[in-house]
Amino acid sequence: MSLSGPIVSGDHAQELLIPHLGQTERLFRDALRTLDKNADCQIYPAADLSIPYDAIRLAGGFATGCVIDWDCSVPIVPIDTTMNIDTSSIFWLRGDPGEAFSATAIDDLRTRIELDSSYEWNLNRGNHFILLCRREVDGRMALVLHSNEKEFKDQYNGLNPTPGNWYENSIRTFGDAGSLRLLVGKKAELFAGLAHMLEDFNILRHRFIATMLLDGVCAIEEESHKHHYFMPTTSSAAIGCYLCSPSEEVPVFSTLGNPISIFRAGAGGKNEIDLGGYGRAIVVPHGWGITTRRQVTMERGVGVLVFNGRRYPLRAGVSLLDDPDVVPRVFQGGGEEFLSEISHHAPGEITATLAQIASYSRHGFRTH
C-alpha cells in the first residue's frame, strides 16, 4: 500500500479502509509465501475507495474501489473479493424512447424475464440501475445500465463464496481466525476461467435487456461497455473501478438523480499502475462511492463483523447497505467538485455530462 491517508480529504471511510487494506496486503503476502517463497502482492486503491455492501468482503480484508494484484507460481484466488462481473453500458439512441422507458414497460419486461427466461433480474438491487439520460451539449439520448451477472453469483455454479457451492470444500484459510480465505490450485484456475467468460456474457446480458426494452420503438445507434468489477488477469481483481488507457473515456456515476460525468483518464497520476500480465493501466473510479457519516470502528469476530457496534453475520447476502452510518458520498458541486477532490491522485477531465431524465433502481422508477 502506497497511501497513508485518504484520497478524498477528510473522508471517514477512507480513513478506515486504507490501513485496513494495508493489513490485508501484508497478510496476503505472508499467505502467498507459504505456497511460493518468492510470491508477492500489491493492493492499489482507487479514488472512490468505499465501504463495500457485502459484509463478508469487508471482513475478508477487502473493500470497493481497489485493484488487487498477486504473483504466485501456484494458482490462487482470494474468494472474499466476492467476485462478480459488474459492467457499465451506454446505449446511444436515435430519438427519444418515450413510453418505452416507463415503470409499466420495465415491469412488463421484468415479468417476462422472471417467468420465462434464464436471466435473473437484478437491476433493482444494490447499486444497480437503468437510466434514461440526455447529453447536455446536444440533447442526444442514452440508456445507461449498471449490473452484474446474477446467474453466476450465489448459485452452486457461482463465484460468490456461498455455502455448498462448487468450491466450498477447497477453500484454505490463513491468518487469525481464518480471516483470509484462498482458493488454491485447479479450482482457482477454473474460477478465473469462469470470471473471464462472464465478461462477454454480462455485455450480452445488458444488450439483451436494452434491445427488448426498446424493441420496435427506438433504435440503438452506438453502444459502449466497460467492466468495473472483474479479473483483468488470472492473478488480479478489480473491485469497483475501471482500468483505462490514457485518454479513454468512461462514465463516472454520481447519486440518485444527479448528472453523470463522462471522464477522460489522464496519464502520469498516482493511479497509474503496472499490472502483471496486463500492462500499464490507469485506475479510474466508477462513481462517487460510499462513505460513512462519521468515524467508525470495525472488528472481525468468529463468524461476525462488528461494524460500529452493530453485528453482521459473515454469510453471503448480508449487506451493510442499510447500516445507519453508511451513506452515499455526495459532492454538492457535482462532477467538477469530485474531479477537483481526486485530481491529485487521478488526473483527467470531464468531456460530457449526462442529465438523468428517469431512473429505475432499488428506489423504484423515478423521473428527475
Description:
It is a single chain. The chain is of the alpha+beta class. The chain has one domain (12-367). It contains 5 helices and 22 strands. Strands 1, 2, 4, 5, 6, 9, 10, 12, 13, 21 and 22 form an 11-stranded antiparallel sheet that branches. Strands 3-8-7 form a 3-stranded antiparallel sheet, with helices on both faces. A 3-stranded antiparallel sheet has the order 11-15-14, with no helix packed on it. It starts with 11 loop residues before the first helix and ends with a strand.
Annotate the secondary structure layout.
Layout: H1 12-32, E1 40-50, H2 55-59, E2 64-71, E3 76-78, E4 86-94, H3 103-115, E5 129-135, E6 141-148, E7 171-174, E8 180-184, H4 186-214, E9 219-230, E10 236-239, E11 241-244, E12 249-252, E13 260-265, E14 272-275, E15 279-285, E16 290-292, E17 298-301, E18 304-307, E19 310-313, E20 326-328, H5 334-342, E21 348-361, E22 364-367
Antiparallel strand pairs: 1-2, 2-10, 3-8, 4-6, 4-9, 5-6, 5-21, 7-8, 9-10, 11-15, 12-13, 13-21, 14-15, 16-20, 17-18, 18-19, 21-22
